[in-house]
Amino acid sequence: MSASARGVVGCTVVVALAVTLAGVWSSLAAQAQETDLEVVKVRKNFYMIAGAGGNIGVQIGSDGIVLVNAGSAQASDRVLVELKKLTDLPVRYIINTAAGADFVGGNEKLAKAGFTIFTNALGNTGFVGAMTNGGAAAILAHESVLNRMTKANYPAAAAPTEAFYASRKALRMNDEGIEVFHQPKAHSDADSFVLFRASDVVVTGDVVDMTRFPTIDLANGGTIDGEIAALNRLIELTIAPTPFIYKDVGTYVVPGHGRLSEQMDIVDYRDMVVIVRDNVAALKAQKKTLEQIKAARPALPYESRYGAKSGSWTTDMFIEAIYKSLS
Questions:
Q1: pLDDT in tens, 24-55
Q2: pTM of whole model > 0.70?
């Protein structure tokens, strides 16, 4: 073989090797972008991200992304990867429904990865610092969330930039009305529902947990009766698919944890909470002690679905929270 022929063969091998390596690196890069999060398409422009701590609601439109909750701090990078798969538009608003770390932990990183809704036509850097959250996305929550985060010493960049004190806050993003409803003394004193009118979706935070009995955080203002009142309010916000029951599911509910739900799921969940509350109240009226009430297992019909004997929130802890709340 001539020298020129060997040169051609050598170049061909090099090119082939380069193409092969490029394919390998491309495949590895694609694998690196895979996460353990689950993204569920709820409506045409609405998604739920599960597995990042608390469930995250994602509304997408011409104005950008509106997030309801931000997940945990540890999951922020993975959440950003999934958002990038959905759209190249920036995060414009984060709305917090609760103050737990699994809902607000990702506030800082996700907000800084986003972009403010305000413009700075004059180019005044002082104006930027005062009005635009440093160019980051806005963080909206009830003032009770801000108070809880302040006491917990969260970084200033993670705190709500817009805190409201009324029972209702309304805004309009992506050609859709969005309403935030504060739910006092429910799971805690810092709970809200977020209703997306056109999408017909409600995001609930920790008032609804489809994986276990609802957490009643007595130390932070939670009460069993406030929890039931919040669930009743949630049912009022949802619409059943009648009269065309086979055409659609009606209003979708994104719970704080667990699977995507609809109105009848919330009715069943509310009924469960009421029945267990009434069982505990009846035993307490008989002068039973807390330990005797636990031994009577007033939540027995629901333990297989919602109960737990270990972990951060057990069946006994739920019973004790009801007992003390009724006091």
A1: 444 434 445 788 999 999 999 999 999 999 99
A2: yes
pLDDT the model gives residue 151: 95
Compute CA distances 245 → 235, 240, 242, 271, whole Å: 17, 8, 5, 22
Nearest Cα to Cα of residue 274 among 238, 309, 313, 235: 235
Q: Which residue has the tokens 């990042």?
A: 52
The answer to whether the CB of 274 falls within 8 A of the CB of 316 is no
79 phi/psi in degrees, rounded to 5: -65, -40
- What tokens appear for 299 in the block? 């939540």
- Report how far Cα 220 is from the mean position of its chain's Cα atoms: 20
Position 242: which residue type?
Answer: T
Say which residues have a Cβ less than 8 Å from residue 172's Cβ, sequence separation at least 6.
178
Token code pair at residue 310: 């270990």
- Buried b / exposed e along 289-309 (16+ C-beta atoms within 10 A): eeeebbebebbeebeeebbbe
98 contacts 182 by C-beta, under 8 angstroms: no
State the Cα–Cα distance between residues 277 and 302, nearest whole angstrom.
Answer: 12
